[in-house]
From TrEMBL:
Protein's UniProt name: Class D sortase
Domain of life: Bacteria
Annotated active site: H123 (proton donor/acceptor), C180 (acyl-thioester intermediate)
DNA-binding is among the record's keywords: no
One Gene Ontology molecular-function label: hydrolase activity
UniProt keyword terms in alphabetical order: Hydrolase
InterPro entries: Sortase, Sortase_D, Sortase_D_1, Sortase_dom-sf
Length: 206
């Protein structure tokens, strides 16, 4: 009998302690969870706010450089290549209409001088016949209504014709110039010759 009483008493004590621990857990969860969640919420809002502010700043800077955006087919400036002593007109768009007249500016990319990747393309048998002579360390200079932007070639790449990495966004003002490759190839060339240049000097029009 005594053993049964002791056993029942131990079970009651264990049950009591379990209930106490449960209530303590609920209390701490209720009192700490809200401030914790609130702090995460504030952190998310702060991060979102910073990102939004950065994007707004970039858009503002772009509007400062180019108050009006060009229409397809518009001439937006020229590309000067010191190594070749060649000045080529740049047209907004990369359809055959633009490429027949000069260098085409990929409409899905930013304009020269803006923060991101500005992509120019041209035919290897016309405007970019000698582009293969241009390489790492050479300069590419764009003159537009916004000003003169000097880029220095950082990298030369040979990629497949369907490679889309040449148009990916960049963290800073970049000029990517592409043409078909090999230069002596007859017919539709299977590759692209790509120059990737970083902005090193800006002269904004007043």
């Amino acid at each position: 009998m005594k053993n049964n009483r002791r056993s029942k008493r131990k079970k009651r004590i264990s049950l009591f302690l379990a209930i106490c621990l449960l209530f303590i857990g609920v209390y701490f969860t209720a009192t700490n969870a809200y401030p914790l969640l609130k702090s995460y919420d504030k952190g998310d809002k702060k991060e979102t706010s910073v990102t939004a502010a950065q994007e707004k700043s970039e858009v503002t800077e772009q509007k400062k450089l180019y108050p009006t955006r060009p229409e397809k087919g518009d001439m937006i400036g020229d590309l000067y290549i010191p190594k070749l002593d060649s000045t080529l007109p740049i047209y907004h768009g990369t359809d055959e209409d633009e490429l027949e007249k000069g260098v085409g500016h990929y409409a899905g990319s930013v304009l020269p001088g803006e923060a991101d990747n500005s992509v120019l393309s041209g035919h290897r048998d016309t405007v970019f016949r000698k582009l293969g002579e241009v390489g790492k360390g050479d300069l590419l200079i764009t003159n537009t209504e916004a000003g003169t932007f000097t880029f220095k070639v950082r990298k030369v790449r040979i990629v497949d014709a369907d490679d889309r990495t040449v148009i990916v966004p960049k963290p800073k003002a970049t000029l990517t110039v592409t043409t078909c490759y090999p230069f002596s190839y007859i017919g539709n060339a299977p590759e692209r010759y790509v120059l990737i240049a970083d902005l090193i000097e800006t002269e904004v029009s007043k």
